[in-house]
Design brief:
The protein contains eight helices and eight strands. The protein is of the alpha+beta class. The protein has a single domain, classed as Gcn5-related N-acetyltransferase (GNAT) (Aminopeptidase). It is globular. The termini are far apart. About 35% of the residues are buried.
Length: about 200
Amino acid sequence: MKARSSIRAALPEELFAILHIRSMQLDDLSQVLAIDSQSFTLPWPESAYRYELLENPSSFLMVAEIEQSEVGRLIVGVVVVWMILDEAHIATIAVHPEFRGQGIASRLMVSMMREAIQLEARLATLEVREQNTAAQRLYQRFGFNIVGRRPRYYKDNLEDALIMTVGCLDKGYLERLDQDDWANNSAGLAGSDPIAAASA
């Protein structure tokens, strides 16, 4: 626990130096489920993640991982995306509560958007709780705009979902992702980066 606390206290640029974004594997599942259960009132069951990993050819899953000798391999974030023709639908994205506010959600978004564009996505969309303004601000930074509403979408409290979309996912969008200094800007995201947003 002491080693984990030292990681959590790291400055964003130090965290970025040890953070890796990669495809999710089946042996990540227990840590991913722990993040999910701590982030959402309606977490995905294990069977849903297994389906996305093993049976759904239209989805890709990524995790943010910290590797240090004191802690070992620690998953601190996850994102699941469904590819529907040329549209990337962000189904869920979450960062472990102990590691929010350090730019991890931004790094997940950058990697996820790059992967979606490589898979020929031209549009990305998601649903977010109306009251989750922190997540909305993060998505807006990536060019997402509110385009609609799903009334009473969330079953736990019947909260509305806002539909947010970004188009024109092309070479120019990739260049903007590359030009932004996400590590140095992460401190400025402290108010918007503590993220947990599920579409389904």
